[in-house]
Amino acid sequence: MSREDYEIIIGLEVHSELSTKTKIFCSCPTTFGGSPNKQTCPICMGMPGTLPVLNEKVVEYAVKAGLATNCEISRNSKNDRKNYFYPDLPKAYQISQFDEPLCEHGYVEIDTENGKKKIRLTRIHIEEDAGKLNHDEFAGDSLVDLNRAGVPLIEIVSEPDLRSSEEVESYLRKLKSILEYIEVSDCKMQEGSFRADVNVSVRKKGETKFGTRTEMKNMNSFRSITRAIEYEVDRQIDVLEDGGEIEQETLRWDDVSGKTFSMRDKEDAQDYRYFPDPDLVAIKLSDEYIENIKKNLPELPESRKERYLTQYNLSEKDAKIITSSKYLSDLFENAIKVCNNPKAVSNWIISDISRILNETEMDPIEIPFDSNQLGKLIILIDKGTISSKLAKKVLVEMFEHPRDPEDIIDEKGWVQISDEGAIKDVVMRVLEANPQSVADFKGGKQKALGFLVGQAMKETRGKANPQMLNQMFLEELNK
Ligand code: ADP
Ligand code: ZN
Ligand code: MG
Hints:
Layout: E1 6-17, H1 56-68, E2 72-73, E3 76-77, E4 80-83, E5 93-96, E6 103-112, E7 115-128, E8 132-136, E9 141-145, E10 152-158, H2 165-181, E11 194-204, E12 214-219, H3 222-241, E13 249-254, E14 259-265, E15 275-276, E16 283-284, H4 287-295, H5 301-311, H6 316-323, H7 326-339, H8 342-360, H9 371-382, H10 388-400, H11 405-412, H12 420-433, H13 435-442, H14 447-459, H15 466-477
Helix pairs in contact: 2-3, 5-6, 7-8, 7-9, 9-10, 12-14, 12-15, 13-14, 14-15
């Protein structure tokens, strides 16, 4: 039997850090990248005798996420202790939610090659993040940084509805864009604020029971997730084909070797000895509270996409690319306010900007220039100050050393020559140096004009305004 005889089953647990100002049970800040252990207090350091108090914003953000993903919102819910020891978890338990999560039974719709597909969400619950271990390779030590301890998370658990790595990527991108649009998380994958545990199993086609799953934890790059799934599926099929059994275990994906390694046997829920946290009160939400959040939910990617079709005349495909990320979409709308040229802005985003993002594996939120600068670049092209060819070089420069496009072309001397006198000088020089081409043109060879324009471009190192060159050559040649 071969890979084609197996079906791939995947379910994801996505952890997303909420962008509240303060942590979930104390008032320490949640900002990323501070000096180790400076953003801590006795509560988030897990000192005995301290009392956690639930941050109301965390509930609000989680309910927002639930409503945006078609979940039912629980009127009654609570926090539970999940007991396990880990060096970056000083309390030796994590406050999470067990049997009464805030949100349940939702779905996210994705596009697949066979049309739209609903990926069901089992639940969304709130919990606290753990600290971080920094491994010092030289000293051979591990140091604990508790700045992240107590940063609020939502965990979004999907049903095992995904059937390929392509579906996984499309689901994750959709989910990420929804969370960005409703502004509950910045979803910066490199900083770990959007990361997934990937559960994979395989079964023979036609089989109705699921196979045993393995789980790869904390994956935060689309490319690694795809590679890890492909590797793990092949590995599981090999084991089964050799007559072996899959062990339920937690694996670690190693990006360098391109392999998965066993970390530990997978725990079951009973291993955690969940119980309601006696320090926290039950969470009771009124219909009015939920309605109010629903009413104020911002525009979601799907509806923005529809709007772009009519408002800006974009094609379905282009509108989808732009609205796939809130940051791209905001860049688009704000740059239009500056240059009033929607077609040009969408072209730049879809072609050059997307290409650079892909090549550098950059997330749109990391684009270093702003909508004002993009709008100005387009104005410079529209005014004829620079050619679109030069503009591409300016854009690359804007990614590398972001500043105003005017400053870049000034510094680099990239201003397009549109001065009539200067253009005429070049034209005359080129005509004089190429009598054969002049004769060819007069003899009816249209192509000779292209050659002459090319020579003039070469002489000005691409800076002459091409329309003006063309026109002036024609005038002189037809004299
Ligand atoms: P845990 O936290 O112990 O991993 P959860 O129930 O929170 O358990 O998450 C289980 C995840 O694994 C869900 O996303 C679910 O869809 C997925 N899953 C469960 N069974 C399978 C399976 N046989 N194959 C693939 N994924 C599975
Ligand atoms: Zn604290
Ligand atoms: Mg899990």
